[in-house]
Amino acid sequence: MRQLLPAPRDAVDPLDLYPRAERHEPPGRPWVMINMIAGIDGGTAIDGLSGGLGGPGDKAVFGAVRASCDWILVASGTARAERYRLPQPGDAARRARISAGRSPSPGLAVVSGSLDFEPDLPMLAEPPDDVSRALVITGDSAPDDRVENLRRVAEVVVLPGPRPTPAGALAQLRQRGAGVVLVEGGPSFNAQFAATGLIDELCVSIAPKVTAGASKRMVAGDQPIDPLDFDLDWLLEHESMLFARYLRR
How do the domains of the chain map onto residue ranges? Predict the structure, then answer.
């Protein structure tokens, strides 16, 4: 992998860049990263999944971005579609996390209004000894029986209102020591953070593919918002795939 900006470098390791980047917590909340992949026409999925857009370079950057956070936060639709597992970083990512003062593995939090999870979803399986159970954040309209059943395999927090807000979810993670939270979508969930101005960093992987179809953009909401301005911090390239890190102005 090579770095194109800010200064050309022939060989870089994403684990030497992303986990070591400076991130300063805004007052009262964690720093929020969003990480998404898209084709050059803006599509974020092939046959409903993002995996078909990736490759070796994206896998390396994905691991490095996850090595940069304390908690991963994702909407339940994405967790179900992508068959989420509890994070278990490889040895190099664990070393990078520990070197940056983080725990060996990030926590995983999922926001859900209905708690409609399949019982065989990997993230709800028995966790390894060194990995905490998933945290599920829901609202007070969630069915009581689903709350109780889910508490057998995950930590469940019920917040006021039918569905947790981004600020409410971030507050729960901050109580659990989060200084940096990585939001992994999907696009509609990302739009909730954009609408409330709760994005500090945007990591974008651009695959050299045209997907067409009706795939959503990386941030896709029903209502327009005041545009959020970002500055390009760095740009990497691997096999015609681009990896950009943007910071909020």
Answer: 29-239
Phi, psi of 79 (to 5 degrees): -60, -40
For residue 35, give Cα distances in angstroms to 8, 118, 120, 128, 218. Answer: 23, 25, 26, 26, 9
- CA-based nearest residue to 229, from 248, 207, 201: 248
Strands 2-5 and 241-248: unpaired
Q: Collapsing DSSP states into helix, strand and coil, what is residue 86? A: coil
Considering the domain 29-239, what is its CATH architecture? 3-Layer(aba) Sandwich (3.40)
Mean pLDDT by 10 residues, the chain (249 residues): 97 96 96 94 79 86 97 96 94 96 96 92 82 93 95 95 94 97 94 96 93 81 87 97 97
Computed over its alpha carbons, how large is the radius of gyration of the chain?
Answer: 18
Q: pTM (2 decimals)?
A: 0.94
Any idea what DSSP says for residue 6?
S
Number of H-type helices and E-type strands within the chain: 6, 10
